[in-house]
Design a protein that fits this description.
Chains A, B: It holds the Pfam family Response_reg. Chains A, B: Keywords: DNA-binding, Phosphoprotein. Two copies of one chain form a homodimer. With 213 residues, the first copy, chain A, is an alpha/beta fold. The first copy, chain A, is 51% helix and 14% strand. The first copy, chain A, has two domains: 131 residues, Response regulator (Rossmann fold), CATH 3.40.50.2300; 57 residues, Arc Repressor Mutant, subunit A (Orthogonal Bundle). In chain A, strands 2-1-3-4-5-6 form a six-stranded parallel β-sheet, sandwiched between helices. At the A-B interface, helix 1 and helix 10 of A face helix 1 and helix 10 of B. The structure holds a DNA duplex (30 and 30 nucleotides).
Chain lengths: 213, 213
DNA sequence: CGTTTAATACCCCAGTTGGGGTATTGTGTA
DNA sequence: TACACAATACCCCAACTGGGGTATTAAACG
């Protein structure tokens, strides 16, 4: 029996996951937390074979949580659960040492297969994610630059734009010159292949660079 | 035993919901569809006491589905399930005849209470939603205008803006003059209390006016 | 120890945006 | 019928945006 820890903020989804697995599935969720901070202590209390980690959580998101527990010396195989099909998250999750990535609109058999694969320390990608990974490395080979890797500063600029600030306001807020803000914005727009700030914000939200509400 | 129909596109969430209810809960999900279009035939095939309707679905969203089945003469009590805490959705769902509204981060007991309440044809609001409803009517009393009721045309303009179109491109796409586009955009920005198109798009996405990729 | 990259800053400039007006038409509703 | 409102269109104009450059500095990386 594979013993799983579920890190997921949506209670209803978590409840569902817990009661979903039958004895014949060979999987059981032995612990659940809505809070990334509680993860380490749960990993100590229970004998966990695999972590099921939601990416989209407020306060402490899945990728950050993963980074944190790896840093503390835990090395549990981890399956990332998300609604986002974005390469950004896949890439970040892989960098932090996740073994697998599955979308929330996957089927139960797919999830079971994913959990079994990951708990055996093999990599699992949901078919829909696989396409993205393929595209990613194909583009990477071409452009060397690796899609759209935004710097922290650039993400900061995007957040300001999304909050309705213009160049001058951003310059004041970040204590830099208006020229610099303009340069950043232009670089971001090039990287993301968009033509207006409005489209920039849309893309950023879809890719999870900006958190929702 | 309350017999429920679940309309939900995320397979994993649906699977979870199905296996979540125990006999002592007095609730069972007798049918599930990922597709709003299938709802009417399922309502005919099964004896359904309550519909659990996800709002955030591609192709045919929950509110549209609800409108469609009401139009076809079905009058099942319906509980809307969503991640959005936005007043816009609450309002639309109510207008289309939903009996209740619950967020996906509710707890299992809350969900059970909601289903029981709605199936008895009483109204149910999740506490978090209740605040919004209260705010809404309080503002409504003040301003008479009712928060930010965007016209269909205005929503169309927003979608174009989010796709990176400028006034000229939107004017061409919608076969109207550039002046008109400008007027619309200005009206929208007033209604939504934002100062830039970028912020406009952010707000629109948070309120669900624009669907996510 | 060179090379790359992020962050910073500046120049130029056409074109768009955002804010202030006003006005006509059609539709729907009180 | 009369009033309200959505959609349309136009005027003016200061300010900002987006696209084209170039360049310095410091940090990161092989």
């Amino acid at each position: 029996m594979i013993q799983a820890l579920l890190v997921e903020d949506h209670d209803l989804f978590a409840e569902g996951m817990k009661s979903m697995f039958q004895p014949e599935d060979g999987i059981t969720i032995v612990a659940h937390t809505k809070n990334g901070h509680e993860t380490p202590s749960l990993l100590e209390e229970h004998q966990i074979d695999v972590i099921l980690m939601d990416i989209d959580m407020p306060i402490l998101d899945g990728v950050t949580t993963l980074k944190m527990i790896k840093k503390r010396g835990f090395d549990h195989p981890t399956l990332m659960l998300t609604m986002h099909q974005s390469m950004r998250f896949v890439k970040e999750a892989l960098e932090k040492g996740a073994q697998g990535y599955i979308l929330k609109d996957a089927s139960k058999p797919e999830l079971i297969e994913a959990i079994r694969t990951v708990s055996a320390r093999k990599n699992y990608f949901h078919p829909k994610v696989n396409e993205q990974v393929f595209d990613y490395f194909r583009n990477r080979g071409k452009s060397q630059s690796g899609l759209n890797e935004l710097s922290e500063r650039e993400k900061e600029i995007i957040k300001c734009l999304a909050e309705g600030m213009n160049s001058k306001a951003i310059a004041n807020a970040l204590c830099i010159s208006e020229h610099t803000v303009k340069t950043h914005r232009r670089n971001i727009m090039h990287k993301m292949h968009v033509n207006t700030s409005a489209e920039l914000v849309r893309q950023a939200m879809e890719q999870g660079i900006i958190e929702m509400g």
